[in-house]
Amino acid sequence: MRGDEFAPARPAAVRVATAASARAHARAVVDAHWGDRGRPVREQDVIDLLLVVSELVTNAIRHGGGLAGFEVTPVPEGLRLAVHDHSDVVPAVAYGSGELPAGHHGNGYGWPLIIRLSREITVERRPGRGKTIRVLVPLSLTTAERREPLSPPRRAPR
Q1: If you average pLDDT over residues 19-38, what whole number do you get?
Q2: How far apart are CA 97 and CA 101, in angstroms?
Q3: DSSP state of 81
Q4: What is the pTM of this model?
Q5: What's the DSSP call for residue 40?
Q6: Which pairing describes strands 78-85 and 67-75: parallel, antiparallel, or unpaired?
Q7: Mean pLDDT, to the nearest integer, of 101-127?
Q8: What number of CA atoms fall less than 13 Å from residue 27's CA on the CB side?
Q9: Under a CB-based contact definition with an 8 Å cutoff, are residues 90 and 131 in contact?
Q10: Cα–Cα distance between 30 and 49 in angstroms, integer?
Q11: How does the average pLDDT of the chain come out, rounded?
Q12: What's phi and psi for 34, nearest 5 deg?
């Protein structure tokens, strides 16, 4: 997401305990940073963002010993997310191909979705114990053409 009006932002760190509260915070940052300035983001990109947030936070809660922190930073290309957990274990699939599992086994879709929808994925060990997973989720602005009807409305015959 590029634009002359983009102002650098500091990370917005909040205390979240669930994937739902993390999604709400990420959505609020998007709305405050772009929507309130009359520059709305494509809804499909926001849906992708919310999927990535859900997967990262859920993984921290279920597999990372609990969620230790959550940060959202607006950048010209989209949103950078940082999810901190309490586990030193780096997921083996974190740097995978993004290929979905061959069969449905009830899990295993999270990291492929993160890989497909994010960029610049890094996993860093935190001082003491735990790790931070950072990703960039690209966002694009809607255009005036996309907000207008594709064809003029038909008028009823007289």
Answers
A1: 90
A2: 11
A3: E
A4: 0.80
A5: P
A6: antiparallel
A7: 83
A8: 14
A9: yes
A10: 10
A11: 82
A12: -120, -50
